[in-house]
UniProtKB/TrEMBL annotation:
Coiled coil: none
Pfam family, one: GFA
UniProt entry tagged with the keyword Zinc: yes
Family: Belongs to the Gfa family.
GO molecular function: carbon-sulfur lyase activity; metal ion binding
Alphabetized SUPFAM superfamilies for the sequence: Mss4-like
Name the record gives this protein: CENP-V/GFA domain-containing protein
Keywords: Lyase, Metal-binding, Zinc
Length: 390
């Protein structure tokens, strides 16, 4: 009797590297893993790399590989991304001697899959010790009632408790400035894994509001909402904590998912006058520097990624030229991957959750539950972070 098969489609944002993956039906659900190592964060721009492990006997067609650009991740690992739109799509683990063989296999980035429910079952976060603060794992504790393991290193070793930190936040950050005029010279370093894209962010200052206007983002006010927000209520919504931090939020829209190859991306909203291309702050922000490559993903929207390693770097909207979304995964804050000394996290809404529910309801609801719990944890600890109980 012939073995029944099941086909799942993987695609990049521009669809140039779309491909159908056919596997034996018994191979599903595929094992899903979130890797939080420093290298994966800086190579994706996201706070973790979400992959589904393909069976070791699966042979990837050369026609698919030929459409992708590879980047050497380590002696045994290669990442593959679309050179047109930047979508991270595949990871290949080679045999110990660098040749395909025993132990070698392919992983597909889960955000590139058209369907997740019933296709992938996430079972763990790994290499959390690299984050120094738990990273995105604190936003995702359970999926469909199943607790996701939290490994400090590789699976099978030490597990870390919820809301773990390698050191108290107060000991890893400079004292939070009490006004936007303080600590102007302090800068946050940001870079992709290959460092072909590298820049610095200053603390909010007088330039963070000068001449800058922007409509409300979906993370604060859903685009589909019938009510209209009062623009005078908070005209500089991107600044938080008495104008000393930038707003950060999490997006699940289809475009961001397909642009990154990841389930979610976390964005920090940063004015371009606060971004410089050198540590001294003397070289102003530009949309063309280093290995930065651009893709016009929709009318009025340009996405920027590293053309060498594939990391997502910026979301750029024509309607707000002086304010960009910076991918949090490229930030290098000494306090940890959430950069809480610089960012205030909005946990009241998973942006564009409506896009995700039909494809990944279990994961989406798990993230919403985790974000809500994280917001309550921050409030209980007396730290920044905002939530909407409505």
């Amino acid at each position: 009797m012939a073995t029944s098969t099941r086909t799942v489609r993987a695609t990049c944002l521009c669809a140039a590297a779309a491909h159908d993956i056919s596997l034996p039906a018994f191979a599903f659900p595929l094992q899903g893993i979130f890797c939080h190592c420093d290298s994966d964060r800086h190579s994706t721009g996201c706070m973790s790399l979400g992959i589904a492990v393909l069976p070791p006997e699966y042979e990837l067609p050369s026609a698919w590989i030929s459409k992708l650009q590879s980047t050497v991740f380590s002696q045994r690992l290669k990442h593959y991304f679309c050179p047109i739109c930047g979508t991270m799509m595949l990871v290949h683990l080679a045999h110990d001697n660098g040749e395909s063989g025993g132990g070698a296999h392919w992983d597909v980035c889960t955000g590139a899959l058209e369907q997740l429910d019933g296709v992938v079952e996430f079972d763990c976060h790994e290499l959390l010790s690299d984050t120094r603060d738990g990273g995105f794992s604190d936003f995702l504790q359970r999926v469909d009632g199943k607790t996701i393991a939290r490994w400090a290193g590789e699976p099978g070793g030490e597990q870390l408790p919820q809301y773990w930190r390698s050191a108290p936040l107060s000991s890893t950050t400079a004292k939070t400035p009490t006004s936007s005029s303080a600590s102007r010279e302090e800068r946050l370093h940001a870079y992709c894994r290959c460092r072909g894209v590298e820049f610095w962010i200053s603390r909010p200052n007088s330039q963070s509001t000068q001449g800058i206007t922007s409509p409300w983002p979906d993370v604060l006010h859903p685009y589909h909402s019938p009510s209209t927000p009062d623009d005078d209520e908070n005209p500089t919504w991107w600044l938080r904590a008495n104008n000393t931090k930038y707003l950060a939020g999490t997006c699940a829209c289809d475009s961001c998912r397909l642009a990154t190859g990841q389930e979610h991306i976390t964005w920090a909203f940063v004015p371009t006058p606060n971004i410089s291309l050198d540590a001294a702050g003397s070289v102003p922000f530009s949309r063309t520097f280093g290995t930065l490559r651009s893709y016009r993903s929709s009318e009025g929207v340009t996405r920027h990624f590293c053309g060498s390693c594939g990391a997502t770097v910026f979301w750029d909207g024509d309607e707000r030229p002086l304010l960009v979304d910076v991918a949090v995964g490229v930030l290098d804050a000494r306090e940890g991957s959430r950069a809480e000394g610089w960012l205030e996290w909005w946990t009241g809404r998973l942006s564009f959750r409506e896009d995700a529910l039909g494809r990944a309801r279990g994961l989406t609801e798990g993230v919403e539950e985790g974000m809500g719990a994280f917001g309550r944890h921050l409030a209980g600890a007396g730290r920044g972070g905002e939530r909407d109980e409505g």
